[in-house]
Amino acid sequence: MNLYLSLFVLLFAVSSCKKIEKVDLATLALNEPIHNVYNTNDTVLIGVETIEYPYDLIVEVINPGKYSYGDIDLKGSRVLFLINAESLKTDSITRFGGAHYDMSALSESNKLQDNLTKYKADTNVYGVRIEMKSPELKTALLNKLESKYGKGTKNPNTDNGQYWNIKAENKLIFFASDYDRLIIINNTNLSKTCYWDSFNGMIDLGGCDQDKYLQSLVRNATKPEDVKNKPQLTIDKDWNISNLVIGKSTEEDIKRFPSYSSFERLEEYDGASAALKQVYYQDKYHDIYFFFSPNKTNPENHKENILQGYSITDFKKVEISFDGPLKPGTKWEDAIKMFDSKRILNYQDLKISNYLEIDHGPYKITLTFDENKQFSAIYFTDK
């Protein structure tokens, strides 16, 4: 009996310790079906992460030890896959203030196909973004790239960045060491002359028409000139909006807001705990968004859900005024001078940014500037 019991325990232990199936990112063509880069044992997050890239759907696989780049183990590093998504080819970088995170775990109630349908997304990945936290990992990856592809081209927008345009493999590789990223993209269906993301800035690959390229990124955006019945909004000296006070006004108070009848109420739930995480209102026609923190004990009581932020993503779709010198259309250089550099949270990154992050106590105000470097959008949120 003891022998049988011992054999059973041993068999159970062996079957329970499943070996992690390694994926070598260096061997991917980056046109693989999404299912081929993870399996059902992995925790998979899917959604929008505009700091990483605002115009695509992003999949992050939470499985330490799953990925490598050649013989370099990427255990402990974030790995994010890019999926082309037509519904995000809008002004999403300003729509969410340049810093929007809305990732949730795939589950029985949050299926992959539902997300792909929602975002009008492809079923294949086309790129991967690898986090490089340590100097050792950066050195190892750079040595690996240079041994295979030779010296890269210096990125003119950053101190230490470089890139490779591997035409034979239809790949662009960006070593953005200043921002802890290695980015690899299959550019078969992308621009062959331009590339932009928030970690690399605008890269001219040869003959880049920046205006045409930027328009292609937002090809599905609503044309501001077609918007009617623009609401009249005011932003006071404390950044409150049209008599709605951040940290005090409630869900009930939003009923007094201009264009309230155009808003849709949505709820965001935590993917792990299923708890109500945020209530938000969106007027997609005028590109206005409000974010409420729900009461933990009674989230159904609208008088207890407190306003924590707002976003106006295109000033051309509203009539808006500000107390003070900042105005819609203010030039980038002039706006920078209006704030103490110590209050500009992304001051060190301004040479490749199109937004200012302003410290406002427990809150952060993101001021976004359009392709003409004119103040065009605002995003107010807690830190």
Number of domains: 2
Number of strands: 23
Helix residue percentage: 10-25%
Please give the largest β-sheet: 9 strands, antiparallel
Average per-residue pLDDT, rounded, comes to 89
Shape: globular
* Spans of at least 5 consecutive residues with low confidence: 1-18
Order of strands side by side in the largest beta sheet?
7-2-3-6-8-12-11-10-9
What structural keywords apply?
383 residues, 2 domains, seven-stranded antiparallel β-sheet, globular, disordered N terminus
What's the layout of helices and strands?
Layout: H1 2-16, E1 23-24, E2 43-49, E3 53-62, E4 67-69, E5 72-73, E6 79-84, H2 92-95, E7 101-105, H3 112-118, E8 127-131, H4 135-149, E9 153-154, E10 162-166, E11 171-176, E12 181-186, E13 194-197, E14 201-204, H5 210-217, E15 232-235, E16 264-269, E17 276-283, E18 288-293, E19 306-312, E20 319-322, H6 332-337, E21 355-360, E22 363-369, E23 375-382
Parallel strand pairs: 1-4, 15-20
Antiparallel strand pairs: 2-3, 2-7, 3-6, 4-5, 6-8, 8-12, 9-10, 10-11, 11-12, 13-14, 16-17, 17-18, 18-19, 19-23, 21-22, 22-23
